[in-house]
Amino acid sequence: MTTFSAAVSAASVTTNAGGSTAINGATITTTGAQTYNDAVTLGAGTTLTTTDSAVTFVSTVNNAQALTVSTGSGAITFTGIVGGTTALGALTLNSTGVTTFSAAVSAASVTTNAGGSTAINGATVTTTGAQIYNDAVTLGAGTTLSTTDSAVTFVSTVNNAQALTVSTGSGAITFTGIVGGTTALGALTLNSTGVTTFSAAVSAASVTTNAGGSTAINGATITTSGAQTYNDAVTLGAGTTLTTTDSAVTFVSTVNNAQALTVSTGSGAITFTGIVGGTHGAGRTDAQQHGRDHIQCGRERSQRDHQCGRQHGHQRRDHHHQLARRFTTMP
Prior knowledge:
This protein is mainly β and 331 residues long. The chain is built from 1 helix and 38 strands. It is elongated.
């Protein structure tokens, strides 16, 4: 075992494979690279800093301590599992280069800075607190991001033809940048009983939201090759166009706000199960489909039934009045 019990300052730091390194001394600062080829454990809140040089963890990183890595333009690379034995504390990663997760991550929270990119190649990132990706995100594998009732926020773009599932309990899910603008995502599945927000265009294989929260579509267009299923209440923050390639678009709950909505599905069905414009009148709604349009509105049906009942009631009363007059005028 290699142990640092106090602060370290050097040109570079390199450990070999096969053992472990215990960083108990809070800070390691180098002008050049830091390469940890062995398993790393954190005995205290730790800050690793370089001058535009890489920090690489070839093996695992563990213990419930905060870890901040700042590398200027240098890359930050986690090749092994992070927090697999004991979840890390807050994980803060500052690089204008590429930050890479090549295996699963478990931590109290994850925050990346703006200006670089984050490659999530390790399938899962799990936190009790928030995940905030301030830089552009690329997916190198089907990815699941999970929090415990805390937000997941993508401040910049998200790309690559991989499935993305985000599950946040009651935490918000926010896409501020374009999703799939360079390369369309795979299946996009969003599970939150809070608010899910699209603030820019989205391109993916499919989009599915869960019930119980709401989805704010503020980014004008969502384009998918497969289906779009909105199980929660939808609000429109801008004129919106939803497009699929011969696949269904389904609104299971309500749709509101005074914005135009165009839905184009080729031969796919278009289904409105909940009330449309019940809270705030919707703008023009164009449903374009080469097959049949399935537009269901329970409120309209109930109004028609109520009007029909009143009409029949009036007819019955008129009939009885006419019979009464006939009987009273008979000799």
